[in-house]
Amino acid sequence: MGTKKTLPVTIRDVAQLAGVAPGTVSKVLNNAPHISEETKARVEEAVRKLNFRRNTIARSLKMSHTATLGLITDDLEGVFTMSMMRGVEAVASAQGFSVFLCNSYGDMAREKDHLQVLLDKQVDGIILLSGYKVHERGAPALDLGQVPTVYLYQYTRAVSASCIIPDDLGGGAVATRHLLELGRRRIGFLNGPPHYEATHRRLDGYRQELTTHGVAFDPALVRVGKWNEASGYQMAHELLALSDLPDALFCASDSLAVGALEALRERGVRVPEDIAVVGFDNRNFAKYQRPPLTTVALPLVEMGTKAGQLLIDAIHTGSPQQAELIEVECQLVVRQSCGAVGG
Amino acid sequence: MGTKKTLPVTIRDVAQLAGVAPGTVSKVLNNAPHISEETKARVEEAVRKLNFRRNTIARSLKMSHTATLGLITDDLEGVFTMSMMRGVEAVASAQGFSVFLCNSYGDMAREKDHLQVLLDKQVDGIILLSGYKVHERGAPALDLGQVPTVYLYQYTRAVSASCIIPDDLGGGAVATRHLLELGRRRIGFLNGPPHYEATHRRLDGYRQELTTHGVAFDPALVRVGKWNEASGYQMAHELLALSDLPDALFCASDSLAVGALEALRERGVRVPEDIAVVGFDNRNFAKYQRPPLTTVALPLVEMGTKAGQLLIDAIHTGSPQQAELIEVECQLVVRQSCGAVGG
DNA sequence: TTGAAAGCGATACCAC
DNA sequence: GTGGTATCGCTTTCAA
């Protein structure tokens, strides 16, 4: 009637039951060559009978790797963070890795602490995920030595690590092209604040595509604000006050687009007949707008999986880190706010 | 000129430098009693000089605990998940624990796999986080043995574990009371779908508070729909079609409230003058509504910290798991949609 | 093809 | 108070 504390079953137990040496069991477990079919079978049966599970800790101690990744994020509040994490988690667990989640709140001291813990825990690799501001990131808050590292949603040149960012320029271009191909020529551009990398690159894509199509860039058509709806609302009204009205609005975020949509509604301009609207980010509310918003999708999950895969590859090859800058394509999501579908 | 692979410095190295035995070093590190000030100082200096860090893996092997928690979540997409995770991460790292992040997608097979990995990695405790549907959860997908477990945002009776849920009933009551105290008597209730626990408990809170204040419950005033804006829009219109109009609308989610607000605007009814509106959840868009939405805050972060703290406490005490059901208070967030502030 | 034994690095018990 | 040493569970080299 006493409490029965189940003692862990070890490789020795298995060896004993199978009548072989512990080392042999280990080899079988690792699918090592030069093992007779017979002993292999005996070992496997013993494993099954005893319900044996290898002690990962002991294994890690001996092998000095842990099948574990560290993920440090800037903000666990950001609307984009979650999807990237989801991508990372997915590849990681599909390939037998676990991932530690750490929140640095954008504070270097905290980042350092977390990094120290991760190093102590002997993670095999580290992902540094953070908001995509305009100033590129510097080195990690702690010297990571040989531990493979990848930067996600930001880039750095301070350190030799792979960096994963969205192809904002391409995204800006594809949206603009869509509008151009639909016959729009005076495309207003509602932009976000200048301290974001995305702001500049989306604008670049817009300008680039304009000149490709032989349309002159008109500075009067671009406005700079915040990322939110209120800002989109206000900037749209500004553009609507122009003597030479735009026939399309490219908004650098979906929130801006929602604000713009409201302003247009207020003014009684029809979307997309009078003015076509396209957003950016593909937030989940985009499809619920009236009309459903055509937008450019930020490939968040894919960026996460890419980061995870790159890291795991680096871990497996063990070769020194490459300093690759990877831009993941931003796909256009066509809905009804530009008149290309159902309109 | 060869690559200098930095060999890890061990406790033996420290011992040697300090001129003491390894065991002594270990004691100093653990602040054990019965150590002379002098050797303590010598050891500490050696530690500093060599920049020694204890090997956590070896330590875990010996001590059979890892200062690590596992967090398995249902959906890494849910709007509420993130905040709870933030809470968990915060307490955990503040108390020296790291947390493994696992996504089960609500799939028991995946949950089982993750649980197995977590057990293999010898986490000290596990948090099961998932959507708060009406059917209580069963046991974990795998027998967790003695590993402390807490259920977050759901409850179970299948297993002896602490469960953390929001006090939806209290939340329903506090919102209703607020309306009642503001003099409203015909309070419409826009509810979510019946397969959520929250749906029932918020309604219960509403009814309970009504009777407390001697106001008769009128079934004609309650509507059941989905959680989203469209549903709120439609249900509000239904209530507006009543001959005996409501003077307030209690919406079981902020999204419902947003839809309701739109319907009211369409009908030209003034908020809060004609009809007061209160939401539930305190989503971040609530404060940007016009008028800013009074709502009941879901204490997500707090629930996360509570879960983490409870788990860590259970780990430290080592006593058998309690089967406590903890309801975390939902606070009323007063803004302007009820006329209590600035109106 | 298999067995024996030496560690990985830290801890804790038992002597002194 | 402090030093020696067995041990946690697994892997791997070296002999046989």
Relevant terms:
homodimer; 343 residues; alpha/beta; 434 Repressor (Amino-terminal Domain); Rossmann fold; 3 domains; six-stranded parallel beta sheet; six-stranded mixed beta sheet; 16% strand; elongated; DNA-binding
Low-confidence runs of at least 5 consecutive residues of chain A: none
User: What is the number of independent domains of chain A?
Assistant: 3
Mean pLDDT of chain A: 93
Bulk shape of chain A: elongated
CATH superfamily of the largest domain in chain A, called what? Response regulator
Oligomeric grouping of the chains: homodimer
CATH architecture of the largest domain in chain A: 3-Layer(aba) Sandwich
Number of helices of chain A: 11
Instruction: Note the beta-strand portion of chain A.
Output: 15-25%
Task: Explain what this protein looks like in three dimensions.
The structure is a homodimer of 343-residue chains. Chain A has 11 helices and 12 strands. With 343 residues, chain A is of the alpha/beta class. The first copy, chain A, folds into 3 domains: 11-61, lambda repressor-like DNA-binding domains (434 Repressor (Amino-terminal Domain), Orthogonal Bundle); 68-166 and 300-329, Rossmann fold (3-Layer(aba) Sandwich); 168-298 and 332-338, Response regulator (Rossmann fold). In chain A, the strands form 2 sheets. A 6-stranded parallel sheet of chain A has the order 2-1-3-4-5-11, with helices on both faces. A 6-stranded mixed sheet of chain A has the order 7-6-8-9-10-12, with helices on both faces. Chain A starts with 10 loop residues before the first helix and ends in a 10-residue tail after the last strand. Chain A binds chain B through residues 5-6, 53-58, 60-61, 66, 68, 71, 76-77, 81-83, 85-86, 89-90, 93, 98-103, 113-114, 117-122, 145, 229-230, 288, and chain B through 6, 53-58, 60-61, 66, 68, 71, 76-77, 81-83, 85-86, 89-90, 93, 98-103, 113-114, 117-122, 145-146, 229-230, 288. Chain A binds a DNA duplex (16 and 16 nucleotides) through residues 8, 10-12, 20-27, 29-30, 34-36, 39, 54-55, 57-64.
